[in-house]
Amino acid sequence: QVHLVESGGGLVQPGGSLRLSCVASGIIFNLYSMGWYRQAPGKQRELVAVISRGSSTTTYTDSVKGRFTISRDDAKNTVYLEMNSLKPEDTAVYYCRAANNPLLRYYWGQGTQVTVTS
C-alpha cells in the first residue's frame, strides 16, 4: 500500500520560512518524479514544483521561482520543499505527489496546511 505523508506546515508571518517534507512508502521512490502542489480556498489545485528522477531537472511555477526550492533524498524516500520569503498568497494546503508516467502511476499525500499571515 502506498503512503505519502507530508509534514512541516504551519502558521508563519510574511517573509518567514518553512520546510515541508513528504515521506513515501510502498513505492520504489527513485522511479518516481516528485511534485508539490497547492490548493487555496476556492481555487484549483496548482503545481508548485516538480523534481525529476535522479534530481536532474526541477521545475517551478513562476510565482515561487527564487523563493522555493524542491529537493529529494532517495535514501530516505523523502522530497522536500524549502519555502522562503513567504507571502500571504502562498497560503494553501500543500500536497505531495509521486508520478511514474510510463506506468501511469500517480499517488497523492493528504496535504499539510501552510498559512502566511501577520
Number of helices, where a helix is a run of at least 4 consecutive DSSP H or I residues:
0
SSE series: EEEEEEEEEEE
Q: Average pLDDT across residues? A: 96
Report the count of strand segments.
11
Question: Could you tell me the strand content as a percent range?
Answer: over 45%
Q: Summarize the biggest pleated sheet.
A: 7 strands, mixed
Helical proportion?
A: under 10%
Rough shape?
Answer: globular
- CA radius of gyration is 14 Å
Short description:
With 118 residues, the protein is an all-beta fold.
Protein model, in words:
By secondary structure, the protein is an all-beta fold. It is built from no helices and 11 strands. Strands 2, 4, 5, 6, 9, 10 and 11 form a 7-stranded mixed beta sheet that branches. The model has no long low-confidence stretch (mean pLDDT 96).
Sum up the structure in keywords.
7-stranded mixed beta sheet; 118 residues; globular
Write the layout of secondary structure elements.
Layout lengths: L2 E5 L2 E3 L5 E8 L7 E7 L6 E6 L6 E3 L7 E6 L4 E6 L8 E9 L4 E4 L3 E5 L2
Parallel strand pairs: 2-11
Antiparallel strand pairs: 1-3, 3-8, 4-5, 4-9, 5-6, 7-8, 9-10, 9-11
